[in-house]
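To: structure subgroup
Subject: Chain for Friday's discussion

All,

I'm putting the inputs and outputs inline so they're searchable in the archive.
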Amino acid sequence: MHTFKTHCIELAVVVIKTRSEELMKPLKNYLKFLPSPQYIEEVLTEALKQLAESDPDACSWILCNSDYLEPDLDLFELAKNFVCTKLENQGFVVDQDFSFEPNRRLNVSENAKARLMFGNSNYECLLLEKILQIRD
């Protein structure tokens, strides 16, 4: 079944693929009709995941221009939550094995970095590379 949420995700994918700043504002205005800010965040996040698989260049573009998605989607918070969840689930401790500086830079031990970079989806790799500037 094709839902309204699916339609919104598909629309976001199409708009982001254009890499047009002029089209981002109408997209965000359209998404304001969704039931909640969390719903908008879910739509944009799913669009990014789909783009990472189908058009990594467009996904990289929007990650490098993340201000077009704000305040509806804070990619730094998304990346930070991903890092914290993944590393804490593997037994690493925040402020011991990894931490975030006020300038949004991630400090991470070599062991934690190796575990963080292992087994990620295309979307997660791009999020780490473009938002936190971490590479393998």
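Points worth raising on Friday:
The radius of gyration is 16 Å.
The chain has seven helices and two strands.

D.
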